[in-house]
Design goal:
- The protein is an alpha/beta fold.
- About 35% of the residues lie in helices and about 20% in strands.
- It has 15 helices and 19 strands.
- The strands form 5 sheets. The protein has a 6-stranded mixed β-sheet with strand order 1-2-6-3-7-17.
- A hairpin with a 3-residue loop joins strand 1 and strand 2.
- The longest helix is centred in the N-terminal third of the chain and has 23 residues.
- The protein is globular.
- The termini are far apart.
Length: about 475
């Protein structure tokens, strides 16, 4: 027994030594760069032009017949008036009506171009909530150090920021070595098929193969990651796929006073409950694994030890991180029943019942594997399994070792030295998915600072961006263009 205890002690000491050594070797991956001098911007002038853009209610509706072309035309005229050097220097063409594609031609045609994305459209304001806004949603006002209005964060802050950066560089006499495309879709909020998809297809037909594509999706986060007190620059290196499964049950109808043992509603409800109870497994892989690799070395020793030794603590880490809705979304393909339709009257048994279940697909899974999972879990021939047309597989995971991720990381650290750069998985979808066929290097980041309270403002009430935070957005775009194309 004594020998066994000694052996156990030796093994534990050895394990402890391995854990500590791996933790000590788990070093920071932040690029070591020197801060650049701040660009001499007039912050109120920048804010004023953004505020003017927010006064255009460029709303995307699910019903495309509600599209208001006059508002988009007015917005595009506003861009022409606000950025005269851009429009005098760059080639511009309209794509499929209101898509905008600008080309800033480089001097070296052998260099692959860079594509900067943003979208012109915004989501509607929920009817009846207009009075809850501190400032009118389409007032475009500047008060209390903020620019208020629908689109301030999603996504006119990015679109105007890109144009401000190019206008500023042209004014300083800059000419790019590498060609730059600015691609602004106009229906991102309702799938992007008429805007970004058409622009990407046009570039593809011209054999444009970008060095990288940069879209919205990441931000400078504050107060969102336990153990991190400063700003964290979240660079999206992948985004989840999308699938809505339609489940249908048909059964004899009749009077509710004489129900059969199982009804269409009951069968369907049981199936949906099974899908919620038996979800696809959690996994630390791809972009989420990269996030922990970058985040871990910046954390206190205890947390760093866990992340440095995922071979042992991976289950614990996944359990703790996945306990929140957002953490769970980054670790698995999520299952979300969203619509249930059945019946026309309280005392009539419906002859059919339909449910929609939305899945956001983790990279490594696919539309096909989710459908296989659904059929396996339900295992009931009475439930017909179909899918909606809007399905898409997850994006490719952009390599953090590749130069595009590295140049964006250096850019952020040069302009915002206190920021810690972290790759991450975008659980939503952006226009960038249409450009995946053109390049493996798709990044998602806008240099706006977003706190916990700001997350609900996107698509919600009181959307706004700080005046100084918007200056950071422009500064990041300027420095990225200096680093990547000038």
């Amino acid at each position: 027994m004594k020998r066994i205890l000694v052996l156990v002690l030796v093994l534990l000491l050895g394990l402890g030594a391995v854990l500590v050594v791996r933790t000590l070797e788990f070093r920071s991956r932040q690029p070591v760069v020197s801060a650049v001098a701040p660009e001499p911007f007039d912050s109120l002038a920048l804010a004023g032009r953004l505020a003017g853009a927010l006064q255009f209610a460029t709303i995307s509706y699910q019903d495309s017949s509600a599209f208001d072309a006059r508002v988009f035309d007015g917005f595009q005229r506003y861009l022409e008036d606000s950025f005269p050097r851009v429009h005098a220097t760059l080639k511009r063409e309209r794509v499929n009506g209101h898509g905008l594609l600008y080309e800033w031609t480089g001097s070296d045609a052998t260099l692959a171009p860079v594509v900067l994305l943003a979208h012109q459209d915004v989501v509607p304001v929920e009817p009846g909530t207009e009075g809850r806004w501190t400032e009118p949603p389409f007032g475009g006002r500047i008060t209390g150090g903020y620019v208020w209005g629908r689109g301030a964060l999603d996504d006119k802050g990015s679109l105007l920021g890109i144009l401000e950066a190019v206008e500023h560089l042209i004014a300083g006499g800059a000419t790019p070595r590498r060609t730059v495309y600015l691609a602004f879709g106009y229906d991102e909020e309702v799938s992007g098929r008429r805007g970004a998809a058409r622009i990407a297809a046009l570039l593809g037909s011209r054999n444009v193969r970008p060095e990288f594509v940069l879209d919205e999706g990441g931000m400078l986060a504050t107060g969102m990651i336990p153990g991190m007190s400063g700003r964290v620059a979240l660079i999206g290196i992948a985004e989840k796929g999308y699938l809505t499964v339609e489940l249908t049950v048909r059964a004899p109808g009749g009077h509710s006073s004489m129900p059969p043992g199982e009804t269409a509603v009951g069968i369907l409800a049981a199936g949906v409950a099974q899908l919620e109870a038996r979800q696809m497994p959690q996994a630390i892989r791809g972009s989420t694994a990269a996030m922990f690799d970058y985040l871990g070395p910046e954390l206190p020793f205890g947390q760093r030890l866990v992340m440095a030794n995922r071979w042992l603590f991976g289950g614990l880490l996944a359990g703790r991180f996945g306990a929140t809705a957002y953490g769970n979304a980054m670790l698995r393909t999520t299952t979300a029943p969203t619509v249930f339709q059945a019946g026309v009257k309280e005392n009539v048994l419906p002859s059919s019942a339909t449910a929609l279940v939305n899945f956001r697909i983790l990279p490594g899974d696919s539309v096909a594997s989710v459908l296989e999972h659904v059929r396996e879990v339900l295992h009931d021939s009475r439930i017909d399994v179909g899918m909606r047309e809007s399905a898409s597989d997850p994006s490719v995971v952009t390599s953090v070792a590749a130069e595009p991720f590295q140049v964006l990381s250096r850019t952020i650290r040069q302009t915002i030295p206190d920021a810690v750069v972290i790759p991450w998985l975008l659980v939503g979808a952006t226009d960038s998915r249409y450009y995946a066929a053109l390049t493996p290097d798709v990044l998602r980041f806008v240099g706006a600072t977003v706190g916990k309270d700001d997350v609900d403002r996107v698509h919600g009430t009181d959307e706004r961006i700080g005046v100084s935070d918007y200056v950071d957005v422009v500064r990041v775009y300027v420095q990225l263009l200096r680093n990547a194309v000038l």
